[in-house]
Amino acid sequence: VTLCRMIIPRNSNLEGLLSVDVDPVNLQDIKWLKSITKLPIMVKGIVTAEDAARKAVDAGVSGIVVSNHGARQLDYTPPTISVLDEVLLSFSSS
Q1: In whole angstroms, what is the distance from residue 35 CA to residue 47 CA?
Q2: From which residue to which does any coiled coil extend (predicted)?
């Protein structure tokens, strides 16, 4: 997707724009990326243990970054510090 060529509708926020025009990265994308490079792959934007953290590590990423990307556009996103324990505990129990 070339963002500079996209027509941005008036009164559109970033969340609305990205949810329509940019597909989220999924586990198949991570596996494909691993198949074409030997570089380490990190995943940023992890905010839940059960959903993304364990699956990302199981997919073979080199590391994860627990982050809500600053939550500037998504004001309902939980603060990173409040989900960090949940993510860490999910790895210490396995």
Answers
A1: 26
A2: none
